[in-house]
Design brief:
GO molecular function, one term: amidase activity
Helix content: 40-55%
Number of strands: 13
Number of domains: 2
GO biological process, one term: fatty acid catabolic process
Structural class: alpha/beta
CATH topology of the largest domain: Amidase signature (AS) enzymes
Largest sheet: 11 strands, mixed
Family: Belongs to the amidase family.
Active site: 150 (charge relay system), 225 (charge relay system), 249 (acyl-ester intermediate)
Protein name: Fatty-acid amide hydrolase 1
Strand content: 5-15%
């Protein structure tokens, strides 16, 4: 057969069969060797990255041990239990030293990462920053506070890997604006935390640094893509962290790990010096934001960051300082609420949380008004998914060139590899049986022209206008709504990309949105979950049911939303929810 094909390709009389076969065999062998060498090179780079991380960990262990020998009487538990505001007060007055606080958190972070694998790298320069902070005449708002930062937020002399091998060779030339401002305010960045490969997942695993576990339950995911931050903080190894959010990447980990987190309006904090595997997606912008144990910590962080230093370093950030008056206000609010978005019904415990919070707010004197977010299925598929997969996923697939794909991303990678025409055909065939899956497949086919993309951007603008008009008609101040949770069993987020509709909506709208834990999963919730049917009786509904099962005792959160540029009002509302839920638990 091969001989016949060779004879057809080459002029008659010029085929030397053994030589041709040897050439063909040699070519195949060379290709296999080339692929094998490529894999070996990838593995070598990953091993080097892990070795560098481990060496950094050992140095930190030695540094902590030396500190312990010098100051053996540190009350570690007492320091770790202090809320951020109280810790800040003690550092400012001098009853605690920045050195004691830093080494206390370094020690705890080492313990937490051994259990959860949440750290990508310690920042050894934290000791230099400590010395600089101790020498400051003026004490910033975050004086002496250790801060952890997400992998891709640039820190001078360190990698921003995004969990990708291709990013292992380039060190950042300078600090991101966010890190510069944190340092100017007296904070001490001490660790960079793990992320899912390419950041495009709400699990937390990559082939280089491995999987991060939820410290509250190792069978559960900490969420993503700011999953390393959430795991470190929930385990007590950090008191303040910085994450990023493009579809729920701050809010989902906070929901899964029982933390407070804020996704501001995208342009409120500088993105300068923050890297990503796929850049230039402006229709649904990325936002940086704080993660912490309580809402007051988020407010303090925003107050510290929204300063002249940030406005001067990045003139694209609107020079709007933090409005303390709005945050401290006690005026009753007019609150819109809903417990389902009509696209992906959440488990019973998450809807219960909204209902209980609504009743508590009403009893506290706030006015509650039912609100229905318009056309969420359309937003999820036509606006959100088409933004990220405008080219059918080709640009995203390119980031895996010369890399090993994480198993959790393989379903999405395989889907992106399907030709556009086949995606459209499959969508047509699936529509009568599973309409939600069909719309998802159709959206994944992407767009075909610049004109179609311009129209897509215009449709996002129109939707934002419609949403704001509906908000204004009801004269709402804020909105209370559910967030995806409780924590998924590890591996399940990769099977349910579209389950993030509750958070995704406010990325498309570019509204500030935050998450507050208000309860925990009960045995009654678990029993009610057995009756959960979803909305479409398709494979996604069954998969969600499996993903959240076995979560008794895990955190249950709600989401709080305000209009663009009203972060202070969003935080004020979050604080009210936090106070009411705390009062209920105490009672």
């Amino acid at each position: 057969m091969i001989q016949q094909q060779l004879r057809q390709l080459l002029p008659e009389g010029k085929v030397h069969t053994p030589a041709a076969l040897a050439l063909l065999g040699g070519s195949v062998a060379a290709l296999l060797v080339w692929k094998w060498l490529g894999k070996k090179m990838i593995q070598k780079k990953m091993e080097e990255a892990r070795r560098t991380r481990d060496e950094g960990m050992k140095k930190m262990v030695k540094a902590v041990q030396q500190f312990r020998e010098q100051v053996p009487s540190v009350q570690t538990d007492a320091i770790l239990s202090l809320p951020l505001l109280e810790l800040t007060r003690r550092l400012q007055e001098g009853s605690l030293s920045p050195r004691t606080v830093l080494y206390t958190y370094l020690e705890k972070a080492l313990e937490v990462t051994q259990q959860t694998n949440c750290l990508r790298h310690f920042i050894p320069e934290c000791e230099e920053q400590l010395q600089a902070v101790e020498g400051h005449k003026e004490k910033g708002l975050l004086y002496g506070i250790p801060v952890s930062i997400k992998d891709h937020i640039g820190h001078k002399g360190h990698l921003a890997t995004c969990g990708l091998v291709q990013c292992l060779g380039t060190l950042m030339d300078e600090d991101s604006v966010l890190v510069k401002v944190l340092k100017r305010q007296g904070a001490i960045p001490f660790a960079m935390t793990n992320v899912p490969q390419s950041l495009f997942s709400y699990d937390c695993s990559n082939p280089i640094f491995g999987r991060t576990l939820n410290p509250l339950n190792p069978q559960k995911s900490p969420g993503g893509s700011s999953g390393g931050e959430a795991a470190l903080m929930a385990g007590g190894g950090s008191i303040l962290g910085m994450g990023s959010d493009m579809g729920g990447s701050i809010r989902l980990p906070c929901s899964f790990c029982g933390l407070c987190g804020l996704k501001p309006t995208a342009e409120r904090l500088s993105l300068s010096g923050v890297t990503g595997p796929v850049n230039g997606i402006l229709a649904v912008p990325c936002a940086l934001g704080p993660m912490a144990r309580d809402v007051d910590s988020l407010a303090l962080c925003m107050k510290a960051l929204l300063c002249q230093e940030m406005f001067q370093l990045d003139p694209t950030v609107p020079p709007i300082p933090f409005n303390e008056e709005v945050y401290s206000s006690s005026t009753p609010l007019r609150v819109g609420y809903y417990d389902t978005d009509g696209y992906f019904p959440l488990p019973p415990c998450m809807r219960r949380a909204v209902k209980e919070t609504r009743r508590a707010l009403q009893a506290a004197g706030h006015q509650l008004v039912h609100f229905s977010p318009p056309r969420v299925p359309y937003v999820m598929t036509e606006l959100f998914m088409k933004t990220f997969f405008a080219d059918g996923g080709r640009t995203w697939l390119d980031v895996f060139t010369g890399d090993i794909a994480d198993p959790g991303l393989k379903p999405l990678i395989n889907l992106c590899k399907i030709p556009r025409l086949v995606k459209k055909l499959l969508a047509l065939l699936l529509k009568p049986l599973f309409p939600r899956l069909a719309e998802y497949l159709s959206a994944m086919a992407g767009m075909r022209s610049v004109k179609e993309m311009w129209n897509h951007h215009h449709q996002i603008q129109l939707y934002r206008s419609q949403f704001i008009s509906q908000w204004k008609e009801l004269q709402l101040d804020v909105v209370l709504c559910p967030v995806l949770g409780p924590a998924f069993t590890t591996g399940y987020p990769g099977k349910l990309l579209t389950a993030i509709s509750s958070t995704m909506l406010y990325n498309v709208l570019n509204f500030p949105a935050g998450v507050v834990p208000v309860s925990t999963v009960t045995e009654a919730d678990e029993e009610e979950l057995k009756l959960y049917k979803g909305c479409c009786d398709d494979p996604w509904d069954q998969t969600l049911k499996q993903a959240v099962a076995g979560a008794v005792g895990m955190p249950v959160a709600v989401q709080c939303v305000a209009l663009p540029w009203q972060e202070e009002l969003c935080l004020r509302f979050m604080k009210e929810v936090e106070t009411l839920s705390h009062d209920k638990r105490v009672a």
